[in-house]
Batch of 4 targets.
Target 1
Amino acid sequence: MLRFAKTGLLAGMLAASVSTVSYAKTELTMYYPVSVGGPLTKVVDGMVSEFEEKNPDIDVKAIYAGNYNDARIKALAALKSGEPAQLSVMFSIDVHELMDLGTIIPFDEVATSEEDKKWLKSFYGPLMQNGMVDGKTYGVPFQRSTIVMYYNKDLFRKAGLDPEKAPQNWDELVSMGKKLTKDGQWGAMIPSTGYPYWMFGALTKQNGEVLMNQAGNETYFDKDAVVEALDYWKSLGSEHKIMPTGTIEWGTLRQNFLEQKTAMMWHSTGNLTAVKKNATFDFGVAMLPKSKEFGSPTGGGNFYLFKKSTPEERQAALKLVKFMTSPEQAAKWSISTGYMGVSPASYDTPELKAYVKEFPPAAVARDQLEHATAELSTHQAGRVRKLLDDAIQATLSGQSSAKDALSSAQKQAERILKRYK
């Protein structure tokens, strides 16, 4: 009897061990930036919970890390110290830097089935520009945006302007801005802290120029059309007086718009839901005005897969990314936050179709993709962006001419990027 009991106990322990192995969960750590308005953590938590319910063999730990730079720094620090992390949402423009560091792998290495390949081709083309290098997909779009113009229709009416017609070109921005500027109220504001290079990318595209090449080893800061764009930006404050001179804070601009301190603002479509919920006035959203053409850079974050992960973790991470970028989830994400749906299929869902019909501003960022360009992205991205940011701010604050500031930035960028030719 004793021998039987021991044998039975051993068999039970082995069975339990096999059961534990069979049902071992794959654990994922995902770093996520929260840098723009909207209840992002709550939305992401809800999406992760829904994913875990449908995939009980996968546990996802979402670590919220402030803005995009914070997310990159914390994720890379965790990887360097040996802490596990399999994926992250980081700046779409981080791709060259992350590749140079050897921390990410292309999705093509993991998404190998025909269904996976079809999924990789399902996104809007302009949103893929910052994520593709040498024909491989390193970043998959998720928290994506373009810059749009928010405008106060009530203030337009008071100024005798058509509330359904936002400025269509640079001249109209000035003329309408003058009618909207009075004591305590500016006609327009374009933020020049936080992401000044991003706003400048819109102005240069509108003036028929881009800031860099696809390979990320050339910049075009000193081209005539680029200098003209910065001169125009400065003139809005210094000459036309429709905007404060000097710098305008990214972080407080939305509140300035909500408090009606400015009649128009250029900002991320990621602010759309927050403005919709908090505006006490009638407002509109429009594409940015043109000079030679309409234009905005895309912006926001992509999913990346980290190299230091097991095959099982990579497949689980791919499953999570495919879930969060599915048409249904992308539609829910767009409605909840204001960021755009990342695929045409997301706008064909009943939910987003109905939302766009009820609230047409939700389609503006998507419609502007027709005129979009890639956001500034190069090797040594942080250093190169800072050169351009400093040139922009030096010009806007009157410390330098646009031509001198941009020529200096271009020469320094060329020295940095020379090794990547």
Target 2
Amino acid sequence: MKCIIIEDQPPAQRILRKFIEDVDSLELKGVFSDALQAMEFLKSEQINLLFLDIHLPKISGLDFLKSLPNPPHVILTTAFSEYALESYDLNVVDYLLKPFSFQRFLRAIAKVPTDKDTRSTLDASASMEMSKKHIYIKSGHEHIKIYLEQILHIDSDSDYTEVVTIEKKYLSSEPLRYWLESLPNEVFIRTHKSHIVNIHQIEKLQGNLIYLENGSKIPIGRAFKEDFLSRVLK
């Protein structure tokens, strides 16, 4: 896959260069400090994948992406989580929140279709799945809309559950069983009698602990460990 980097910070450029060099299927064709330089390059070169920072000089990464009539696959990189929801509407492959690990980088790469012709199929599938990308949490007298990718983990505590997202926590009167039945089981996995985890938010596994990208540590129960590992490490 031919790819380019659009990133104005040299340290971030170096990290992406190193990660790309360590993946045999990726071929780096250029590094650009602003989107206007990249725009000229894309007029004459065919690129499969674009690593795009959101905060750029002259024109933002999101505005640049919106201006492309036929963009390549895009993985967004940023230090700010508040742009995640807007990025989903642009059909990006993934959203990497800085600083990200090589393991998280590999998970993003794994989501990139190997054939550009499959993009239309993916877009159609994405449209069909739009209704599943968010859920309403009943918290007190309110029903609050939460995007699934924002959920880190869900914890049970006797009479209520706590839904922990990137930005805040929500208390819900629904039991843990309700979340297991309502959320896509290929993404949200029970790791303990009191915990459900979003596997896309896992940073690393160590012993009987799951380390999430926000620093949270979630236990893996003995009764759930075999199933959890077989699904996550497949």
Target 3
Amino acid sequence: MRTRILAGALLALLALLAGCGSDPGGSGGPQAQSPGPSPAASAPPPVPPGDPLREPAQVVSKNGFLRTRIVVERKKVELAGRQLWALTYNGQYMPPTLRIRPGDRMDVSLVNKIDQMTNVHVHGLHVSPSGHSDNVFVMIKPGETYQYAYQFPPNLATGTYWYHPHAHPITAPQTAGGMSGIIVVEGLKQYLPKPLRNITERTIALKDFQLQGDQIKTEDLSIGAPTTRVVNGQLNPVIRIRPGETQLWRLANIGANIFYKVALPGHKFRVIARDGNPVTKIYSVDSIIIPAAARFDVLVEGGPAGSTTELKTLPYNTGPAGNQFPEATLATVVSRGEPVPREKLPATFAPAIDLADAKIAARKTITYTENEAGTEFYINGKQFDPDRIDFQAKLNTVQEWTVQNNSDEVHSFHLHTNDFQLMSTNGKPVPFYGYQETVDVPARGNIVVRAAFLDYTGKTVLHCHILNHEDKGMMSTLLISDGAARKD
């Protein structure tokens, strides 16, 4: 046992020496826009395959209701072969996955046992931003307990989501410290052919951590500093699949800041959902750029019997003022056992309303800038102020927003409460594959999105989901009302 622990510690040290860095954004799918080839970055030393991939524990709704208690506390956890101090949910670096269904109610009792204020955001879910629901303006003081209550709509999109703190201006350190977990809205498999509706699911939760002695670093975070990347809290776990078998992988970047460009050499990812939204048509890609906060549900087929393939994140460059991320191994995929016949996939997948012909109630411009030192970030020349309303929208209308990035690094655009349709990137139209809520904005470039404001009124936010940038000002307040929207 002692030998195993020492070996694990050595593996963690090797991974830390590899490093990776960044100031991200990013988008995957056919519309993906890369900032260009990444300059040479030192590849990490090889890390031997570890234990079989472990699924996180699960809390599952029953009879339309999920009730759970989440305790926020600083605890020592076993991570990459070491005992490390981390910020945890229920004492775990990889906390339980919350599994719900459309129309469910979810009650969460959040207990704050750390010495900072905190809260929790159910990222990507279409639910009220007010009261005791997904209200990111609520701050829970040390020692306090807060009762959240979410009533989800019956048409809630099925797919993968996540939960994390949203306590401005300390969202990045709390998330980087370990406070993030997965949410699954059941029902995605209903769109698959019957032979594939009981396929094996794999949670591929991508998190990373920087070290400071025997603790995960949470202060003075540098996105470009060396970091260790783990899957479900494991270092290079083994993912088992049978030859020809189709599995559903839930790829989720639930870290604070960094980019992943995920690839499984020799295999295609067949995308069936993006940011919790089923796609209208399944599409295949060799690699997927996953900015912080984004999720992709993909189908993966097992390779030839006896084959072993590394699931990698490839080199990625976020621009002249950004960072370079080196290649690293995330997991090892092993194909063993009795072959499985391959199943044909449908040409179309899930229905969605294309907003291309929607009536536009208002058009707005959102401009990203930053100071030369990279210490202050702005939207339309302003830093975030929770007491100021920056944008307004009227319920049951569609708005078109142009997001202009006037900096030399990629940023991302994320919208709470309502998802959007990406219309174009740098003036190039993007094919409609469904909705999303996080997309990268190229350096010195722009995107155009359309959002339909449905079901819920209240004060919510939009921001860059590179959490270091959000904490340093790159966030705005949006008020959705059932009355006429004033001119901004």
Target 4
Amino acid sequence: MLELREGDKRAFFDAPFNAYGADSLYVTPMWSDIDRYFDAKKNPLFKAGNPFRIFTAHRDGKAIGRICAHMHEASNTRHNTNRAYFGFFDVADDVEAATALLGAAEAFGRAQGADEIAGNFNLTAMQQLGVTTEGFAAQPYTDMVYAPPHVAALLKHNKYEPTFPVSTWEIDLTSANPEALLTDKARAALIDPAYEWTRIDRRNFAARLEDARNALNDGFAKNPMFVPLTREEYEFHAKEMMWILDPRISCCVRANGQAAGVVVCIPDLNPFMRAVRGAYGWNAPIEFIKQRFNRKRAVIIYYSTARTHQGRGLNSAMLYRVLTNLRAAGYEKLGITWVADVNAASLRQVEKLGATRLHSLHLFRKALT
């Protein structure tokens, strides 16, 4: 017998382990993150008045699926939509459970007056997007959505249609040629005295974090799905990066006292999170030390150039610096979180470096009228 519960955060955390099994490539967020994401007193998205619900599906007393449903009124206003979102949709290959979870999210959306629902959209632009539709054998990096093939199939069974295709990528740093990025404009940007190149490290973390936010908000201003992040929102999701940063592999560029561009790149934490199963137990310090001394994989969370500096080669120059530093630091693989298929410029850059597509993902949408 299937039971649907609302508001059980611990079951919400446990559900993917039960749904996918020990051999799955899925990697859980940390329990501490799940706990604070869905705390209406801590998460700025919900403090701003956006309603949300979390649901879990239980069979024989065991959580086998989960979903969150939420509104993002700033997104609806900015993009002239009337949409509810679902996220963190993870479920066993169980039609009844998937239908119950999606039905609960749809009912939430209708109650909010939304005329459609779409996901996965895991709360904000600082988090993960999409449902895996290809590349199921590829190991995901930090901040990449992963689900087995049956999840997309269950969405289609429930009359959801795929839209907004995106891809994740991987670069083999042992064979990549960063010089391929050096156009004449990029070479000029590297030596332009107007540009101040800085690292993101603990000593200057707060200031560089604000630069990173400003570069993201300005550079992504016209991108579909994006909503500019307040300082509180950005710090809520990014401030814990201070403890995992490798200052050699990110960069921030300033000009005239303002952020001109940023590449936020971190070591891949998925091996650590998999080893500790998302919880800070007795083995977490040991696994963290092991991870620090065996860093071979890194991931670019995002890169962005402020609009007044676009078209000057700065983006390519930043990526050249980051890739060169990654190779010098002994990293062997670099993941790149989702790039929209409509973003031709970013796709050209990753293809220049011989990147291979890891996963294809889509948002899945359904009309609620």
